[in-house]
Amino acid sequence: MTLLTVAGASGLVGSTITAEALARGYTVRGTLRDATDTAKRDSLMSLPGAKERLTLVSADTSDPASFDAACEGADAIFVACFPPIYKAADGTPATQLDRQRGWDEIVAPVVDGCRTVLQAAARQGVGTVLLCSSTSSTNPPEPVEVKTEDNAVSSGEQQMAAGKYTSAEKIYMEEMAQALCDEAGMRLCIFLPTMMLGPVLPHLQGNESLGLVRGMIEGRPQHERIPTGSISAAHVGDVAKLFLAGYEQPEARGRYFAVRDSWPVADFYAELGRLLPDAPQPLPPEGEIEAPTRFDFTRQRSLGVTMRDIPEVLAETVAFLRGKQG
């Protein structure tokens, strides 16, 4: 039976990949920093098929051998254990760090940690890597009218110079991963999500990705005034399906957008107002609403995954969170 390793199995993306892989009949070995964490373990082991086909192990990038053990015998590894770092260890926001601290405390831990995981995978003969990155790596030096995975590539140096270390970490991670996988002969797919909504496991119900919807349900909007910008979003279950499709299609490789669409923030609040008519709304935006990001989804569609529309995703998220609230 095919074994898949999910690095970061307790996270938002990793847990949903784990659930999708189990639903498809795969055997899964999931890594957590601490596999004895009862809340996370119980959540994951409650998934259908988990008792028969899910093993949870402790692994940390500070101990490369722990990832050797996690990768042993696996056909592929799904790397979802590097969420964005927004603060230094002492709590200083990443945006307030100087360049040296930005590199040392925000960028390097992600790049070096991912390298450790991929080197272990290569040593163990893993053939395919599915890496979770972010659309924060899709801001090219010169703006483009319609983003494709090929033209929307950030410059790490430009991001560093602008003090955008959290964005820089993602493009540097992608570049390192591509070079390492090319050298090791591993097939690499990189997925680029942003805000992910939809039902989650119990230990993730406070996840910040659900904050916009949760804030409206609880009567405390996330914004005092609606921003003029836009947000890209997708159903986290559809994101997981993209990862599995990337694994199951041997010709798949390279970068894939993992969003359904980009909407003005004002449209998100308008749709949430329709779903939650009694919820207080933030103040209206000041100034002109910016045009949302435009994506070319040709590569994403080649994977054969039907992404749910944002109104459907919001409705499902509201129903899920209200059910848990009750």
Automatic annotation (TrEMBL):
Pfam families: Epimerase. Belongs to the NAD(P)-dependent epimerase/dehydratase family. Dihydroflavonol-4-reductase subfamily. Transmembrane segments: none annotated. This is Nucleoside-diphosphate-sugar epimerase. Coiled coil: none annotated. InterPro entries: Epimerase_deHydtase (IPR001509), NAD(P)-bd_dom_sf (IPR036291), NAD(P)_dehydrat-like (IPR050425). Residues 137-159 are annotated as: Disordered. One of its GO terms (molecular function) is oxidoreductase activity, acting on the CH-OH group of donors, NAD or NADP as acceptor. Keywords: Oxidoreductase. It comes from Pseudoroseicyclus aestuarii.
